[in-house]
């Protein structure tokens, strides 16, 4: 029986995780649930699952749940927790990841912003505390699955190719993209996800976050991590080895398979409720290059990853502010990459060697982007 702390239980990944747990009551039990603002859904989840602990970060205590970011830390470090599923959105999830790893927990990580803002600190926390990190992101789960099997024979990969759906604006003109509405940006062609990552998928900032995430997870240089647009979202990643062989992992787009794998890695467990793959129904699979001029956020993010130090935290912080402003209809879609570029240009990169440095870079990026808005 693995005991789970689920951070971000009310979101898209959070509710998908509970769907997975519901099918495996003999293997997993959620002992802590933490949400952001959605007190009503959290109360329903508490009624259904009877966890030992429940917190509401942005609550005021009136709903009876402990409030504040400490609720995330309290859940992530409980003695009765084996696995922390971090499904919080944004850099708000960082400290929970760090403290869980320092406490020796397995962290099943959906919260990619954690690795992007502070990849080196996350690795250090795992080393010091004995915790381990397993990705939930489907592309990174795909890479991990290709590397975990006997086919990889413990050899390091020479190249990763992450796939991107291309988002709703894959074939749009640059001009139409710049003027895209919130409803159009939220209309993702293949994945159903929370609003922030859906907008990130439309700008392709999400794929830059994933390249940085892959760099830290698999300890590979940026020259060895490529991205290809694959509109059907069936192949989640390719892994190339030194002899030229390439492995790929495939399946219909559902997060429940990578979530279960993150809980059981390196083992697999049967799941009668899993979405079964049908290659005939999947139809033709196509691949195309990223249109860099149409999606400048992607190149900005990869360049920030290559610059290293505090640059990825600045990319992430500015992007979070820009996406929130777009969703609030304060800026047009086309301004998202402009705000990211402004924040990166204003920042002097330093080594991201402490949480204080990372927090300062994140705060500066948010301030610069907000002032520009
Ligand atoms: N959705 C996907 O398919 C998918 C795939 C791969 C990776 N991811 C990554 O997984 C993470 C979650 O994505 P999502 O799509 O599930 O997002 P989401 O649907 O927006 O859910 C976010 C969750 O985080 C909670 N939350 C928000 N701000 C918080 C804060 N300051 N402190 C604590 N909790 C907070 C929300 O609570 P309330 O709703 O109660 O406010 C909600 O439970 C993101 O990092 C995303 O990039 C998602």
Write up what this structure looks like.
The protein is of the alpha/beta class. A 6-stranded parallel sheet has the order 3-2-1-4-5-6, sandwiched between helices. Strands 8-7-9-10 form a 4-stranded mixed sheet, covered by helices on one side. The mean pLDDT is 96. The protein folds into 2 domains: 2-135, NAD(P)-binding Rossmann-like Domain (Rossmann fold); 141-307, no CATH class. It has 16 helices and 10 strands. α13 (296-307) runs antiparallel to α14. The relative contact order is 0.12. It is globular. The chain binds NADP nicotinamide-adenine-dinucleotide phosphate. NADP nicotinamide-adenine-dinucleotide phosphate binds next to α1, α5 and α9.
Broad shape? globular
**Helix content percent band:** 40-55%
- How do the strands line up in the largest sheet? 3-2-1-4-5-6
Report the radius of gyration as a whole number of Å: 20 Å
Oligomer: single chain
Low-confidence stretches: none
Distance between the termini: 49 Å
The chain-level mean pLDDT equals: 96
Give the SSE string.
Answer: EHEHEHEHEHEHEHHHHEEEHHHHHH
Main structural class: alpha/beta
């Amino acid at each position: 029986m693995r005991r789970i702390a689920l951070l971000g239980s009310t979101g898209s990944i959070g509710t998908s995780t509970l769907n997975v747990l519901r099918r495996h009551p003999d293997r997993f039990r959620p002992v802590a649930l933490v949400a952001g603002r959605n007190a009503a859904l959290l109360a329903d989840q508490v009624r259904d699952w009877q966890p030992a602990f429940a917190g509401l970060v942005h609550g005021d205590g009136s709903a009876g749940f402990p409030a504040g970011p400490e609720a995330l830390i309290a859940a992530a470090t409980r003695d009765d927790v084996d696995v922390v599923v971090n499904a919080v959105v944004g850099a708000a999830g960082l400290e929970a990841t760090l403290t869980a790893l320092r406490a020796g927990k397995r962290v099943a990580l959906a919260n990619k912003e954690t690795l992007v803002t502070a990849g080196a600190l996350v690795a250090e926390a795992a080393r010091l505390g004995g915790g381990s990190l397993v990705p939930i992101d489907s592309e990174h789960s795909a890479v991990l699955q290709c590397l975990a099997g006997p086919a990889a024979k413990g050899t390091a990969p020479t190249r990763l190719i992450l796939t991107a759906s291309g988002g709703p604006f894959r074939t749009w003109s640059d001009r139409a993209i710049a003027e895209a509405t919130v409803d159009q940006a939220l209309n993702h062609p293949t994945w159903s996800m929370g609003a922030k990552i859906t907008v990130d998928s439309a700008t392709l900032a999400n794929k830059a976050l994933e390249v940085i995430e892959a760099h830290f997870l698999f300890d590979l240089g940026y020259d060895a991590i490529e991205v290809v647009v694959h509109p059907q979202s069936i192949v989640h990643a390719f892994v190339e080895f030194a002899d030229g062989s390439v492995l790929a992992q495939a399946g219909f787009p559902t997060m429940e398979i990578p979530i279960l794998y993150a809980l059981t890695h390196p083992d697999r467990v049967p799941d009668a409720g899993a979405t079964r793959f049908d290659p005939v129904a999947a139809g033709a699979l196509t691949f195309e290059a990223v249109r860099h001029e149409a999606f400048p956020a992607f190149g900005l993010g990869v360049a920030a990853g290559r610059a290293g130090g505090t640059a990825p935290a600045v990319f992430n912080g500015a992007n979070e502010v820009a996406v929130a402003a777009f969703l609030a209809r304060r800026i047009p879609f086309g301004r998202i990459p402009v705000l990211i570029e402004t924040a990166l240009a204003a920042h002097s990169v330093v080594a991201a060697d402490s949480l204080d440095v990372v927090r300062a870079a994140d705060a500066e990026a948010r301030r610069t982007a907000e002032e520009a808005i």
